[in-house]
User: Fold this.
Amino acid sequence: MRLTVVESSALDKKKAHTIDKRVQQEREQVTKAMEAQKKCTYHCEHDAQSALKQGMSDTELSFHRLGARVEHFEEIVRPRSRPKKDAEPERATRYRIAYEPLTPDEESIQATRRKASRFVLVSTVPEELQGRTMDGSAILQTYKGQIGVECNFSILKDPYFVDEIYLKKPNRVEVLGYLFLIALLVYHAIQGKVRSQTSKHRPLIATTKRKLEQPTTREIFRLLEYMQVIVFRMPDGSRHRQLGQPLQAEERRLLSMFGWDESLYV
Assistant:
């Protein structure tokens, strides 16, 4: 078994959004705790230092840097009774926690982004296969190439095709499998033919009026799904065929991509 660690240069949008959300949530939580702590005062420096130590240990920072210190200030002590005339107000030294501005830890944020952009490929491919050196880059390229094949085979897994197959003999099941593969080849050839003639500036307009730059064969078939052909039986026994209604512009364009026109139906 071989393990290949891959680090992508482009972070997935969903993962990037999650990290940004975590950074924002941490900032809001720390800011809320700081605002609450600023309202607290202490009568001795020891209590203030203990509160600072406890607060810093309770605050787990993953994406920010925070500095704090204990500072003292003088506070006027209000007497319980009415003060004497011209009496000097009594002052007392109090202590509080002063915080420095909360700053983002860019190094930690970038490290988290890099970690999120990594994934591990597990394979049993040998270091050399069919005369080709299978290093990490080759394994990654092969892995990325699987998606095209897997997407095509998902069509054959559709219950519409394989839900009920009434074949008992193994050789007939095998033949049906080959027929499915031939149908898949034609299916993919149609898609490739149309996609080679569509682009961002010349998309295919689907039945739902959506602009398709890379249409699938399923969408292509939907454009030609409801073609109505009327057959007239003439008195002399001959038959005349014509379309129930004229072809739309996209239908004509689609047929022209394969070198056909409406005479294909009539």
